[in-house]
Design brief:
Helix content: 25-40%
Shape: globular
Largest sheet: 10 strands, mixed
CATH class: Alpha Beta
Pfam family, one: Esterase_PHB
Number of domains: 1
CATH architecture: 3-Layer(aba) Sandwich
Strand order of the largest sheet: 1-2-4-3-5-6-7-10-9-8
Protein name: Polyhydroxybutyrate depolymerase
InterPro entries: AB_hydrolase_fold (IPR029058), Esterase_phb (IPR010126), Plant_Biomass_Hydrol_Est (IPR050955)
Number of strands: 12
Distance between the termini: 32 Å
Structural class: alpha/beta
Oligomer: single chain
CATH superfamily: Alpha/Beta hydrolase fold, catalytic domain
Keywords: Hydrolase, Signal
GO molecular function: hydrolase activity
């Protein structure tokens, strides 16, 4: 059996998830071991990818079996974007109550209602355009998510059209820190508690400049009231992890910059704890973003 057909058999199409103004597709993976009041992770693929290919690369459904996690995979249609990118930079697809964000919100509600998901344990992650759309969802529906992980993405509302998006991807013209904070605060009337934020980026990314990662961190620092240098830095699987803790000592932001890595999702496919499969934009660098993100969210089984 090919890996693509294997993935297709693992993921199930989600039908009838409410209005779909963004004209997206939706797939789910619910492990047999999934308990009532279990967690949900929303997984957003990158450009040129599909939900199935991103699942193969990241290993999310394998981890879901291991840790009893429900998964939702929103999918872009080529009719909406020629390279299959989420339209994170379009005004009609980057605000609450419209377009792709509303489609994803309706998908989440359908899965939550249909599988008795714990509403306090809903998380979202994505890479590249999926990472940028993760920023959109965290800003426009912050009350829905306990946490989000943005991989090779961009800060919320840093661009409002395709030309601005290309400039921002190249690392130019990002909003000021004051603007970054205001963009999230002005997206809703929400006042907290805010979702925790995990940021991942390769320091050799020539598709989305890694200055965008530090902008994402700064966008959320003031919101979480953790401005300034990290609370502490540690090494994880050979790479630095910077963390910011709130007044209660809880880690609210973590930031991994992966040395010598280009554009993609960092994976570690080998060994007993290996997940995913190396491929285009699925980069074998000896650290599993999938497993560590799930661990950050408290979803992995303790050893």
């Amino acid at each position: 059996m090919s890996t693509s057909s294997f993935a297709s058999e693992r993921l199930c199409v989600l039908e009838n998830f409410g209005t779909d103004p963004g004209l997206l597709s939706a797939d789910t993976y619910i492990p047999e071991s999934f308990p009532k009041n279990g967690p949900l992770v929303v997984v957003l693929h990158g450009s040129t990818q599909s939900p199935e290919s991103y699942d193969i690369g990241t290993g999310w459904s394998t981890l879901a079996d291991e840790c009893a996690i429900a998964l939702l995979f929103p999918g872009q249609r080529r009719a909406n974007n020629l390279i299959g990118s989420f339209n994170w930079f379009e005004t009609g697809d980057s605000q609450r109550g419209v377009g792709e964000p509303l489609s994803i919100r309706h998908m989440i509600k359908q899965v939550v209602d249909g599988h008795a998901i714990d509403p306090s344990r809903i998380f979202i992650t994505g890479m590249s355009s999926g990472g940028a759309m993760t920023s959109v969802m965290l800003a426009t529906y912050p009350e829905v998510f306990a946490g989000g992980a943005i991989i090779a993405g961009l800060p919320y509302h840093s661009a409002t059209n395709i030309m601005e998006a290309l400039v921002r991807m190249n690392g130019y013209g990002s909003p000021s820190d004051r603007q970054l904070d205001a963009l999230v605060r002005d997206a809703t009337t929400f006042t907290g508690p805010w979702p925790t934020i995990s940021v991942w980026h390769g320091d050799s990314d020539t598709t989305v400049d890694n200055s965008n990662a530090s902008s994402i961190v700064r966008q959320w620092q003031k919101i979480h009231k953790v401005e300034g240098p990290p609370t502490h830095v540690e090494m994880v699987d050979g790479y630095p992890r910077e963390v910011w803790c709130d007044a209660d000592g809880r880690v609210v932001i973590e930031y991994y910059i992966i040395g010598d890595m280009g554009h993609g999702t960092p994976i570690s496919a080998d060994g007993d704890k290996g997940l995913g499969k190396e491929g285009k934009y699925m980069l074998e660098v000896g650290i599993s973003s999938t497993r560590l993100i799930a661990d950050f969210w408290g979803l992995t089984q303790s050893a």
